[in-house]
């Protein structure tokens, strides 16, 4: 059994990691670390775990890390790198769910997140977008788990980018996310009476996930790309749907592109390409799937890609486990095959 | 592997049965039967099953039943008994999710549901409320899976009734259910614009689940009970919370009653008693648990019990699987242990 | 024009008062007072008022009260009485939306809310439940605007109580409220991810509105009543639906009772009695109406009353304006006649 | 008093027209016509009108039109033109809420909606987008009330188009609408369990509102434009938020553009330009306002415009009344000034 320790275990991502790891046949959760909930049994703070998990939140202690094989850091950026460093120095596999190890270009990172203290660790890290970076992940000790918006956007665009089927500066990503993406907060902006029956854009032309998307898309395209990215807040708990626009460089129709996507992702279990119809948010919520559909607008020569994920699973905890599976040479699907509840 | 056939597989309960059976290590779904969707692959009607389940809905055919070990009937009452009879005659274990085999007193049944055509089968059937009727279930070939409201109400009341701790005619059950309880329908009353931001009572003083609740509660109490039951429609997809009022016959406080409940359900994995706090709907949605808490109102000498279930799981598909586990001598928890998504 | 000043104008009740007063033809809002938002134009904090209201929140200042004819206090209890006293001493009509002037029996008040500092003002005050206390309201300078739950409960019960048609200790009030009833808060318990798709009871057997309900119902009944009251939190923004149970003392059927209710409320514009069907939450949200329907359960001899209000309107701001209309001898309906948006 | 008759009065738009006209000081509703609800009092089908409106749905009869001054047609396209013709022939002002009189180019109309039977009436009609076509409206007897999506899109783009500040083929409109936009339907796709917690795009690259948007935007721009338009279904009852992307032709920053918008709409009461922040859906729901904000993305030289309306008010019934006000030389704001409920 792989022993897993979760640091920052009481946030939404931490709790989702726990819920998913409980279904994993090869993992034992060795410790759940949360200073704000230290010494409280998880069934008190999260009664959904009553009779399911008999663990108590612990204050951080290096000994808890020592006894683990894999460490998941579900902490805010900046804070996270301290614990990543520590776990790395103890020789552990570290999967970091913050933005601290997502970037190769630290100038991009610093602009959005401030100075990085452990720049020498960047070369030891890989970007944990499994379908694209599987080989790098296998050989890294630190995995920077991707952001939720970037996961939906990059995977939705990858076949087009890799084959340069779209014009360089034509990409627009209009994303809509459920509220859990904001994390566990008492913030008034996320109170029920504010969010219910509402909808809004936020961070327009300045959201920090833009640089992460641009770095990875540029890499796939082979040139530096500037991308417009607009996130919106949906009145739902979970899920991201990204509507992606790009101008085609060739005269391709829907069937051509579907074939290209199917070929590109032919070995990827977690990518589902829609030949007919388009994905909807609820088809993926509760799962690790990325559902992708598309249409071509002849008149404007644009492709419109719809890419859906569950922000807490493929966009966070599920992809983290997928990364762990890769790293520990398990079948990548282990513990992650499930149909969503839907209703 | 137990081979399972589901008749009426395309409704909400049928789909939930499929989703849950996919997690069951000892079951193989041998056929999914739905005349309205015949010959359509399930991934077309329900894309959440893409890459998860490669089955096609079939028209009913006795041969499909013959190759199964267990038959789940998820059909409307009246229609259901025809298929139950047929499967029974073929020697199969039949778990019927309609109301056709829930009653012992057919006068009660007929008053609410019309004439029963196979009255001789009643003696072959048991009421599938696992925690109360486990022994009868083991020795029956037909199991009448309980209604969703009755499951939440009876299990919430059982310890009080069995020990006659409440006055005979004092019981009031005020229940609130999510919309999936109404089944898969195009009915205008269940359209989004009608239900969203709304709340209403329905079937007041005449809902058909009243007679099912009364029959089973009377049996537990040892006298015929008249009970007030009021269902309400919540603007949520799933879950039932019942607020149950009864006047105590003895001077008991909260701790006394909690102790009695804990003792009564001490061997029941799926019953969770709250010593502190009270259950909320989201603690159980997505699970087979029944969460029960209570308070005593000294001033009025009433106990107020809060009982929560997921109407589609413990109130339908999950309990059906629990019944199958009992019937096939599996560990009762098999395939049914999971924490809810919560957010 | 009546000049109105609102103290505590930035909370949910304060904002709703402003929104409703803008529709009132005889009122001019002279000041909106909120220390936490002082000197901020309301269109900045609440953009829904852009181009509608050109006012700026002010810090409290007695001069603002002096220039007003009526003062609405939308402050927390305890704090509120200080401002009520001050406005009263300045000779103003004061409508207090806190619990500070709702009680006649200060022992009840103190038990739930702590000591009252201005006990001598109680005799100057009346309980602002317009349909029942209209005459007292006309002759008082301080009006204690009723709580939201009590408004729905007392008006739903009044005809039964006044005529002693129900057994003394048989009354149970099972109420369900939208989230705005909790007020404007950054409390985690009211965050979207907690409330959405959830439902729960709270304050069971100890909610403070119980004593307010009991005092007023006892007064109507002519004897001291003990009542069970259970509030629940609905995942909707606004509205209260109370399901009220009581055992009848006489053999009355639905039609008899409907007739009694219609007679009792025959001059009350804001009370709508349902002869057929039952009210639903959305029929009243956005309005000052109280919608009441009922059924009789022959078997148990109970009446089940459904009483619906908008917690922010008839349960707070609307009733406050209705009280103002009474006090200033305006037609009681002025500014308060509107159909709800419904969808 | 202007006498108004509403044909198709029982749909969502018809009901909203009734609700709004009740607030209009110069209008009396002379008849509400709905064959499916004929002879049923509106308070039976829509209890929110109890005590508010004492009218009964009527079967269509030309006499009902004769006694009206203005006729609102809230019928499906194709059917609507028959009644428009009839009312026009009777000399009435007709405001048609279908798509039948929105187009000048009947080739566009026919492609999306089929053949038009009264092509000679097109020249008698004007497009009822008040802020842009006020003069034409004044002199037309038939007003084609704009679609909901086109209203949000065209008004969001008009200043940019009129001044040719954006590149011809760069416009992308990503719109998100509440469910009431689909009309009153028993369609399974709009059932609560399908829509709740879900989100999806639909009609991608083929929605019929595209041609309406293109015709009007081309007119404003002075050249034929091809525009990408993607509608999405939000799990809310009402409101449309459009996120509009376009590439700037000049080096303009946010302040420049805000100034241009403010200038362009300086006399328009119902347009609210956001200098700081961006509009959210709830700021406009329940109102006739169009709230517009924008950001400029330097890196990509794109402007991102956020344009919000209430689809049933400014997107349908409210704009219809605004058109009536224009046509009858009333103050355009009459009956339409209100702040939204927000919570």
UniProtKB/TrEMBL annotation, chains A, B, C, D:
<dbReference type="Pfam" id="PF22698">
    <property type="entry name" value="Semialdhyde_dhC_1"/>
</dbReference>
<dbReference type="InterPro" id="IPR058924">
    <property type="entry name" value="AGPR_dimerisation_dom"/>
</dbReference>
<keyword id="KW-0560">Oxidoreductase</keyword>
<dbReference type="InterPro" id="IPR000534">
    <property type="entry name" value="Semialdehyde_DH_NAD-bd"/>
</dbReference>
<keyword id="KW-0055">Arginine biosynthesis</keyword>
<dbReference type="InterPro" id="IPR023013">
    <property type="entry name" value="AGPR_AS"/>
</dbReference>
<dbReference type="GO" id="GO:0003942">
    <property type="term" value="F:N-acetyl-gamma-glutamyl-phosphate reductase activity"/>
</dbReference>
<comment type="similarity">
    <text>Belongs to the NAGSA dehydrogenase family. Type 1 subfamily.</text>
</comment>
<keyword id="KW-0521">NADP</keyword>
<dbReference type="InterPro" id="IPR000706">
    <property type="entry name" value="AGPR_type-1"/>
</dbReference>
<dbReference type="InterPro" id="IPR050085">
    <property type="entry name" value="AGPR"/>
</dbReference>
<dbReference type="Pfam" id="PF01118">
    <property type="entry name" value="Semialdhyde_dh"/>
</dbReference>
<comment type="function">
    <text>Catalyzes the NADPH-dependent reduction of N-acetyl-5-glutamyl phosphate to yield N-acetyl-L-glutamate 5-semialdehyde.</text>
</comment>
<feature type="domain" description="Semialdehyde dehydrogenase NAD-binding">
    <location>
        <begin position="3"/>
        <end position="140"/>
    </location>
</feature>
<comment type="pathway">
    <text>Amino-acid biosynthesis; L-arginine biosynthesis; N(2)-acetyl-L-ornithine from L-glutamate: step 3/4.</text>
</comment>
<feature type="active site">
    <location>
        <position position="148"/>
    </location>
</feature>
<keyword id="KW-0028">Amino-acid biosynthesis</keyword>
<dbReference type="InterPro" id="IPR036291">
    <property type="entry name" value="NAD(P)-bd_dom_sf"/>
</dbReference>
<protein>
    <recommendedName>
        <fullName>N-acetyl-gamma-glutamyl-phosphate reductase</fullName>
        <ecNumber>1.2.1.38</ecNumber>
    </recommendedName>
</protein>
<keyword id="KW-0963">Cytoplasm</keyword>
């Amino acid at each position: 059994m792989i022993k897993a320790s979760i640091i920052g275990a009481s946030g939404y991502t931490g709790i989702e990691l726990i819920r998913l790891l409980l279904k994993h046949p090869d993992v034992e959760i060795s410790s759940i670390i949360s200073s704000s909930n230290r010494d409280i049994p998880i069934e008190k703070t999260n009664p959904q775990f009553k009779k399911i998990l008999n663990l108590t939140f612990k204050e951080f202690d290096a000994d808890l890390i020592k006894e683990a094989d894999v460490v998941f850091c579900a902490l805010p950026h900046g804070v996270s790198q301290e614990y990543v460093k520590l776990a790395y120095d103890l020789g552990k596999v570290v999967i970091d769910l913050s933005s601290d190890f997502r970037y190769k270009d630290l100038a991009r990172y610093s602009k959005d997140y401030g100075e990085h203290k452990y720049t020498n660790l960047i070369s030891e890290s890989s970007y944990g977008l499994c379908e694209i970076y599987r080989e790098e992940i296998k050989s890294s000790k630190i995995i920077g788990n991707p952001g939720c918006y970037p996961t939906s956007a990059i995977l939705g665009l990858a076949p087009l980018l890799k084959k340069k089927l779209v014009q360089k500066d034509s990409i627009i990503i209009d994303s809509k996310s459920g509220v859990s993406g904001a994390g566990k907060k008492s913030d008034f902006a996320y109170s029920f009476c504010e969010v219910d029956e509402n909808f809004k854009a936020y961070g327009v032309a300045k959201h920090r996930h833009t640089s992460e998307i641009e770095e990875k898309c540029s890499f796939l395209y082979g040139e530096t790309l500037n991308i417009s990215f607009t996130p919106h807040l949906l009145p739902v708990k979970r899920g991201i749907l990204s509507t992606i626009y790009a101008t085609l460089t060739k005269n391709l129709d829907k069937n051509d592109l579907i074939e290209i996507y199917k070929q590109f992702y032919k070995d990827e279990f977690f990518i589902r390409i829609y030949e007919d119809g388009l994905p909807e948010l609820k088809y993926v919520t509760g799962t690790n799937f990325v559902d992708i559909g598309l249409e071509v607008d002849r008149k404007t020569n644009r492709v419109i890609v719809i890419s859906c994920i569950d922000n807490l699973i493929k966009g966070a905890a599920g992809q983290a486990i997928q990364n762990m599976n890769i790293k520990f040479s398990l079948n990548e699907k282990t513990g992650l095959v499930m149909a969503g509840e839907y209703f």
